Amino acid sequence: MTNHMRKQYCYIFFIALVWGVSGCMVGGKFTSPAANQSAPEKFPQVAGTSDSSTLVKWFELYGDTVLQRYIRTALDSNRNLLRAAQRIEQSREIAGIVKANLYPSFGYSAQVGGGSAGTEAQKVAGGLDNGVFKTFGTLNWEIDLWGKLRSANLSAYNDFLGDIENKNGLMVSMVAEVANQYFLMLDLDNRLAIAKRTLETRRESTRIITARFEKGYTNEIDKLQAEQQEAIAAAAVPTFERQIIIVQNAIRTLMGLPPGTLERGTPLYAQKQGPAIPEGLPSQLLTRRPDIRQAEKRLEAQFYNIGVAKALRYPSFSLTGVLGFASPGLSSFISGSGLVANGFGNLVGPIFEFQRNKRRIRVEEFRTKELAYAWEQTVLSAYGDVDNALAEYRTYTQELEIRSAQTIAARKALQLTRARYDFGYSSYYEVLIQENYLFDAELAESLTVQRKLNALVQLYKALGGGWEL
């Protein structure tokens, strides 16, 4: 066998050895914790239709085009979402930088100069007594024998995916917050209208009672009580007006707009009560929640940091090469005698580190356990969010039926009491009581409608953006 063939076989063997060893990752492969997570198959508090065949854009079912427009504007212009988008781009570039470490690095260098030095100075490399012309192409490549670079790449990539899920979670929260504030604004509009209507009624009552008092048909206490009732309704008007301004500005801030007024769409009582909730909503829908997916990606990124720490316990192998020309004179610079071609293999590894590497691994393992517990807590909180939202929707539905019946009864009772008062069968105090009952009942009914709508929005948020309909 010739020397040339021996060299070729050595090269082939070396490349095969490097290729085979580089397939080893001392950190292992990540396994999703969801595989070992026990979860309820269904949430028991759900009642409704079992039709879940069609996936639609969730808020379009409300039929309120103004609300839909506000949601789209917030998703396009909210500053927190724009910041999250920039974080994603940063993570993308960082992941690209880390991935580039897997590949060879090529560079170049050039030097032109010269000088003079005495013979004694030259003996101790004190200088050159001639010209210098150098130009080189360089190669540096760390062979990833133990998976250190691949683990770092996987960690950075999962950090990038985690940032994407963070933005997805912000988007879901943004949609829910705009809808919540919008329904609250409609509720305040409705309560303001109730207060104004009640104020007009009580002003008329005060006018009538005052006229009767002036003619001696009633006593002064009735007149004073009527004035008090009018003042209660009057004070409610600026209270609701103030709250409406605050909510309007909150919505405009979510949309990236300065303070101002907002257009209204469908009134509160005309709002559709949202889509019917499927019977036995499966808990697997929680895998859609961005915060759960983000927590898992953070955990996976940290898991691969263990691989990086473990790989530091083993020797690292790198290749360096130089190809170019060097000469003391320009005339011989690119001649065959000026050719430079050098290649080196570098092996570096630890011997005594006084448990530094071992402790580094343990630190990463503890961090991984910490994030595993954080993931579990996120899942438990998610189950609680869904169950709470279902309970709120169910109980607010029941409460709304009771509040509506209460309002109807209070309105009828006030009519009868006023008729009895007009004919002298009741005192004005009884009228005042019934007026307060009706005012409180109407306000409570409006508030319950808003809370029922918002409970469905909270369920949308708890499930990571709704469910199939």
Description:
This protein has 469 residues and is of the alpha+beta class. The chain contains nine helices and four strands; from the N terminus they run H-H-H-E-H-E-H-H-H-E-E-H-H. The chain has a four-stranded antiparallel beta sheet, with no helix packed on it. The chain is elongated, with a radius of gyration of 38 Å. The two termini are 75 Å apart. The model is unreliable at 46-56 (pLDDT under 50).
Assembly type of the chains comes to single chain
Strand content: 5-15%
Largest sheet: 4 strands, antiparallel
Radius of gyration: 38 Å
In total, how many beta strands? 4
| Global geometry | elongated
Helicity, as a percent range: 55-70%
Mean pLDDT: 85
- The H-and-E topology, N to C, reads as HHHEHEHHHEEHH
Contiguous helical run count: 9
Order of strands in the sheet with the most strands?
A: 1-2-3-4
Sum up the structure in keywords:
four-stranded antiparallel β-sheet; 469 residues; 61% helix; 4 strands; alpha+beta
List the helices and strands and how they pair.
Blueprint: H1 3-22, H2 65-77, H3 79-100, E1 105-114, H4 119-123, E2 131-143, H5 148-214, H6 220-254, H7 290-311, E3 316-327, E4 339-348, H8 356-422, H9 428-462
Antiparallel strand pairs: 1-2, 2-3, 3-4
Helix pairs in contact: 2-5, 3-5, 5-6, 5-7, 5-9, 6-9, 7-8, 8-9
In brief, what are we looking at here?
The protein is of the alpha+beta class and 469 residues long.
